[in-house]
Amino acid sequence: MRLLLPAALCLFIASCDIINPDEEEPGYIHIPSFTMDVLPGQGTTSEKITEVWVYAEEQIVGVYDLPADVPVIGNGLTDILIFGGIKNNGISTTRIRYPFFKPYRATIDLQPFSRDTIIPSFAYFEDVVIAEKDFENGNIMIPAGTNQGLFNVTTDPAYVFEGERSGIGTLESGQTILYFKDDDNLILNAGQPIFLEMDYSCNNSLSVGLLAANGSSVNKNLAVIINPTTLTVGLPRWNKIYIDLGLIPLQNPNAQYFEFYVEVIPDEPGREVELLLDNLKLVQWP
């Protein structure tokens, strides 16, 4: 037994080496940040890319918040794709690759324990149809329904997101609804991704959606209810959201056109409401 035990142990260890060979060590891609580029006519560079989706040789590696050190198994020249990710409708549990951003492509010489830095640059696809409306040329919002509030343009630097003007909606204490729409007739492609990008600040929850018009009838379609960015009037706190509108045209196949709306009902009786908007960007495929 004294002679057989070491022999058996050696055989066991050798077998383990065959069954479980040493795992290949990864190289690392360091992604500290990114940049955003737009072509003429594509509007603001404002974005809220919250993570990156990384692929190596067309295989998903993972989804990472930035800055990130991404482990990638491979050896030699490796094709890398990096996609910009967003929170769909501002919800952290519904993270997606934004369909209108091109992937960033790079080729790296991947080696075990290597560390290559990539700063991706994101941009819209060239054929994306973008219709942006801001407030630089005046107010784009008109009252809707039973509105009791006001919506104007402000040039106060403390309230302007970018440029020289932003839109501001107000509701005084005792008033019960701020309800405005953009009176442009929007033609939307049913069955395709459609997003509304929007910079905003509000001290109250905010409803955003589309009015679907068919002859004399108008159907109100809620897209999302947005949480307050601040609880204080007079101290804006700007945020950006990507609002998914894709289902609404499918739910209204007979609509002749659509109109964007915002609606605020005080979360507490008597609350004064202050809503700021800028860079309303409707994005869809041709």
Task: Walk me through this protein's architecture.
By secondary structure, the chain is mainly beta. The protein has two domains: 22-123, Sandwich (Immunoglobulin-like); 129-284, Jelly Rolls (Sandwich). The chain is 7% helix and 46% strand. It has two helices and 21 strands. It has helices spanning 4-19, 247-251; strands spanning 27-31, 35-37, 51-56, 59-64, 68-72, 76-87, 95-97, 104-110, 115-117, 121-123, 129-133, 141-143, 150-154, 166-171, 178-182, 194-202, 206-214, 217-226, 239-244, 257-264, 273-284. Strands 11, 13, 14, 16, 19 and 21 form a six-stranded antiparallel β-sheet that branches. Strand 6 (76-87) and strand 7 form a beta hairpin. It starts with a helix and ends with a strand.
